[in-house]
């Protein structure tokens, strides 16, 4: 058997860290075959630790490449010239594939050009990604990569809102199954553990150049406050509500985690202008300027975004007046939103409001609102 490096064939002397890139390359192009244990000139050098190498390759497919590529990759071996050669047959995938560590970026997405792997350009990434989105496959029809998810957090949220949970019909009632009865992508997003995360960065001072004061990552758990919007920029700024994933949106509305009035975006643009929104290829970045300059940040170690912060240069009375003015202007503002605006922790916000005495919260959760009792 003759081996040669071609557009559809890749040769590797041994298993190396570049294998995930080469598998992604063939998935994103027209498929191909990778042989491990073959020199660049086509001669056989063989794989000595066959079982260990096969296990490592299986681990790469499982943990380093997204989306799930198992149905497009076939792992096998050949015995040539008394030596073992690993054969990895890769079909063209049906999505944009990337190295998990780098995400959908120039460092994570590759295509085959001749006999080499090349990073995809931003335009190529955008075209392939949009092509997949335009296929109109509903989130409830895509099989989950997690085969046995648990939903304790979601069930707790639903129970708190007064919904009854029937364990026997839970997945069906909340549209978490495909037509074939498997858990779907919506189930994966709402599971107690998944691979979706939200990154939050808080900067010192008044600009990014002043350095990072706090960096947190909330994720790999039930996703309850995220949704992609398929809107034009004009509709976005007008506050048009048009969810891509209707079943997911319905669940969020049930949990009071979103509303359909389209009030939020116009309110933000009225206060801060349209420049706070930056439309990137695959996500929307929102940068809200702080009302105060952050001098120091003190963390108490509590998970879930409840860090308490202090601002040495901000006088207590000035801050109390600022809090009252924000609540007067927007009685629907949350403690989390107040925290993001001023840089102080949620517990600090609650402590200040409690100290004021003439501000109370009416209702519960996101459906409630602040009420100011004017002092005579």
Descriptive overview:
With 376 residues, the chain is α+β, with helices and mostly antiparallel strands. It is 30% helix and 18% strand. A four-stranded mixed beta sheet has the order 1-2-5-4. It has a two-stranded antiparallel sheet with strand order 3-6. A two-stranded antiparallel ribbon has the order 7-8. A hairpin with a 2-residue loop joins β7 and β8. The longest helix is centred in the first third of the chain and has 14 residues. It is elongated, with a radius of gyration of 26 Å. About 7% of the residues have low confidence.
List the helices and strands and how they pair.
Blueprint: E1 9-12, H1 19-28, E2 32-36, H2 50-63, E3 65-66, E4 73-80, E5 83-90, E6 98-99, E7 110-113, E8 116-119, H3 122-133, H4 152-160, H5 170-173, H6 185-190, E9 197-203, E10 212-219, H7 233-238, H8 246-254, H9 264-272, E11 277-279, E12 284-286, H10 316-329, H11 335-342, H12 346-356, E13 359-362, E14 369-372
Parallel strand pairs: 1-2
Antiparallel strand pairs: 2-5, 3-6, 4-5, 7-8, 9-10, 11-12, 13-14
Strand order of the largest sheet: 1-2-5-4
The geometry reads as elongated
Cα Rg: 26 Å
Strand content: 15-25%
Query: Helix share of residues?
Result: 25-40%
Our measurement of the CA-to-CA distance between the termini, rounded to an integer number of angstroms, reads: 94 Å
Mean pLDDT: 77
DSSP, total strands: 14
Number of helices: 12
Largest sheet: 4 strands, mixed
- The SSE string, one letter per element, is EHEHEEEEEEHHHHEEHHHEEHHHEE
Low-pLDDT regions? 225-230, 294-314
């Amino acid at each position: 058997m003759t081996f040669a490096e071609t557009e559809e064939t890749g040769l590797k002397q041994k298993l190396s860290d570049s294998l995930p890139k080469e598998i992604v390359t063939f998935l994103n192009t027209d498929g191909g075959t990778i042989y491990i244990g073959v020199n660049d000139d086509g001669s056989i050098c063989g794989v000595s630790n066959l079982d260990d190498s096969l296990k490592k390759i299986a681990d790469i497919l499982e943990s380093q490449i997204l989306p799930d590529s198992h149905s497009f990759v076939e792992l096998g071996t050949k015995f040539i010239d008394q030596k073992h050669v690993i054969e990895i047959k890769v079909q063209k995938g049906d999505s944009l594939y990337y190295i998990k560590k780098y995400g959908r970026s120039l460092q994570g997405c590759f295509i085959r050009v001749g006999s080499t792997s090349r990073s995809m350009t931003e335009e190529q990434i955008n075209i392939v990604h949009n092509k997949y989105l335009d296929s109109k496959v509903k989130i409830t029809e895509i099989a989950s990569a997690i085969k046995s998810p648990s939903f304790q957090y979601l069930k707790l949220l639903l129970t708190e809102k007064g919904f009854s949970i029937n364990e026997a019909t839970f997945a069906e009632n909340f549209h978490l199954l495909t037509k074939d009865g498997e858990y779907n992508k919506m189930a994966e997003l709402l599971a107690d553990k998944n691979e979706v995360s939200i990154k939050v960065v808080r900067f010192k001072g008044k600009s990014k150049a002043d350095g990072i004061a706090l960096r947190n990552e909330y994720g790999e758990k039930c996703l309850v406050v995220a949704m992609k919007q398929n809107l034009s920029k004009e509709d976005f700024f007008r506050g048009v509500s048009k969810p891509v994933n209707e079943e997911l949106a319905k669940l969020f509305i049930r949990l009071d985690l979103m509303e359909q009035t389209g009030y939020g975006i116009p309110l933000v643009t009225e206060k801060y202008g349209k420049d706070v929104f930056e439309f990137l290829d695959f996500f929307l970045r929102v940068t809200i300027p702080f009302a105060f300059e952050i001098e120091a940040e003190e963390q108490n170690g509590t998970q879930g975004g409840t860090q308490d912060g202090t601002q040495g240069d901000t006088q207590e009375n000035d801050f109390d007046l600022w809090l009252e003015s924000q609540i007067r202007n927007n009685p629907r503002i949350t403690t989390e939103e107040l925290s993001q605006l001023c840089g102080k922790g949620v517990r600090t916000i609650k402590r200040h409001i409690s100290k004021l005495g003439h501000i109370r919260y009416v209702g519960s959760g996101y459906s409630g609102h602040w009420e100011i009792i004017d002092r005579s």
